């Protein structure tokens, strides 16, 4: 058995007092919270593209990551070695799931057939590793943004031929995900937007995107892929504007094209902040529509206006996320995928462990704190009390559609000026803070 991470053994829970950075201080996989284990609440996944393919280069400099298992070639042997290193990593860190793009696990060939053969080969390799490790695929996806042919978009390209290439690629990526028992399949519209409106027919491009998704749904139904389909909203980058801008825009798009029953949302923190929303806002919007499916767990930096994909280490953030996840009864087949990368200066292989430990412990704490806030009930009770007037007869009649504007005028006259209560925002924030000790 090869050892790609020599000197690092399985990361174990050692409790909050541990001073050993190679331990979990909060993620105790078998600890039970609200009747379920932490492991099943959190369903952590590691992103193959960041963990194995991100060399930590940035627009100003080359990669710094030390990856002794990677010879830099596009050979199948190299792809197999990366996967072996990845599964060793998953085993040691104790993460049960992973996510991939077709092109980051398997090399592109000279034509579609060769590319498909490469992917088929790699799917068998992944299957072998899944079987021997018990690890599972949370979701797969197609990289429809890196190849130069997608420069003007994939489904939204001005070229119908590019649309056909993208369709063929998605077909095979769904097959790969299906074969590996993936719980879901993600559509992230990396270049499904525009650089400039001066050369863009927005109505045409949006209709193309809808048609593309319809074709995928048709394929899912015909091939019996049982997993969920997700859309991952993102407002921009690399495009100026992406059509799946935020949760609200995605829901509206899906509703317009009658696709709402077919998709849930994979919500990413750094995409929320790029859209000038909080993650809490995006998750609440998705939850309200019954479409909160999965989470790309990362975060941005308040001084940087782009998708920096930091590992999520902010306990306020993870607590807010887990409060919503617990409130909707969990993510079901979804999970928390660390769509996150180490900083360029964290270039040693062991930093992959530190980064994931930081994210996992932050979410474990978020889960524990969120559960404590829920058990305490003060915040939930305050919310319920705030809307109590809607429980009155008049409130029920309005919501049941049994009132006219005239009825409401009579009601308004009979009660006089409404008496309002304070929103108590600061008091509630302060109660929330009490739990972050
Ligand atoms: C990029 C996206 C991407 C998707 C998968 O910003 O987050 O990584 O999650 O294609
Ligand atoms: Ni993502
Ligand atoms: Ni992202």
DSSP E strands, number = 14
**Domain unit count:** 2
* Average residue pLDDT: 98
CATH topology tier name of the largest domain: TIM Barrel
Radius of gyration: 24 Å
Q: Strand content of the residues, in percent?
A: 5-15%
Kindly state the percentage of residues in helix.
40-55%
Largest sheet: 8 strands, parallel
Order of helices and strands: EEEEHEHHEHHEHEEHEEHEHHEHEHHHHH
Class based on secondary structure composition and strand pairing: alpha/beta
Termini gap: 43 Å
Strand order of the largest sheet: 7-6-5-14-13-12-10-8
Low-confidence runs: none
Shape: globular
Catalogue the ligands.
D-xylose, nickel (II) ion
Q: What is the name of the CATH superfamily of the largest domain? A: Divalent-metal-dependent TIM barrel enzymes
Reading off the top of the CATH hierarchy, the class of the largest domain is best stated as Alpha Beta
CATH architecture name of the largest domain: Alpha-Beta Barrel
Could you describe the 3D structure shown?
The chain is of the alpha/beta class. It folds into two domains: about 10-375, Alpha-Beta Barrel (TIM Barrel); about 390-435, no CATH class. The protein has 16 helices and 14 strands. It has an eight-stranded parallel β-sheet with strand order 7-6-5-14-13-12-10-8. It has a two-stranded parallel ribbon with strand order 1-2. Strand 13 (about 290-295), helix 11 and strand 14 (about 335-340) form a beta-alpha-beta unit. The longest helix is centred in the C-terminal third of the chain and has 28 residues, at about 350-375. It binds D-xylose (XLS) and nickel (II) ion (2 copies). D-xylose (XLS) binds near residues 268, 307 and 339.
